[in-house]
């Protein structure tokens, strides 16, 4: 299954499991009903910010839109089995290193953000979770509500998804970082 098929399937399944119509999800996420329908029909590939607004409105992590739930993930997850998604607008690249576990557990995601790229997410209104970020290479600026953090290789930052957040690469080369997400 392609990543666009997976996103379409997961978005529709999550929306329907919560008893939401396209109109209700559009209203709560600020994403048009037409765009949500296009994503579910695989007629459009969403941007990272748009996916973030949908995930926040559904009360799920981005990983839940980009990967299948696994109750018992295999102990080995080869590189070829790690879902990779690229934002069609800015080239942001997201690799789901560990599988999303339906019953919780930490998730590991690798992000590559192109030079001068920026991606913003709203605060999650419910089912917020914690993230820990570790910079692998390059530099990254994070605006977390009113706080601003400048990170370089080796730095680590812990934050929640309860407040609006913007990730910006001020450098001239791509930056790469790892995110660890957990419920607590």
Describe the structure.
By secondary structure, this protein is an alpha+beta fold. The protein contains 5 helices and 10 strands; from the N terminus they run αααααββββββββββ. It has helices spanning 3-17, 22-29, 33-40, 48-58, 62-66, and strands at 84-86, 93-96, 107-113, 118-121, 130-137, 139-144, 147-152, 156-160, 165-168, 175-182. The strands form 2 sheets. It has a 6-stranded antiparallel β-sheet with strand order 1-2-3-10-5-8, with no helix packed on it. A 4-stranded antiparallel β-sheet has the order 4-9-6-7. Strand 1 and strand 2 (93-96) form a beta hairpin. Helix 2 (22-29) crosses helix 4 (48-58). The chain starts with a helix and ends with a strand. The mean pLDDT is 89.
Quick take:
With 184 residues, this protein is α+β, with helices and mostly antiparallel strands. The chain has helices at residues 3-17, 22-29, 33-40, 48-58, 62-66, and strands spanning 84-86, 93-96, 107-113, 118-121, 130-137, 139-144, 147-152, 156-160, 165-168, 175-182.
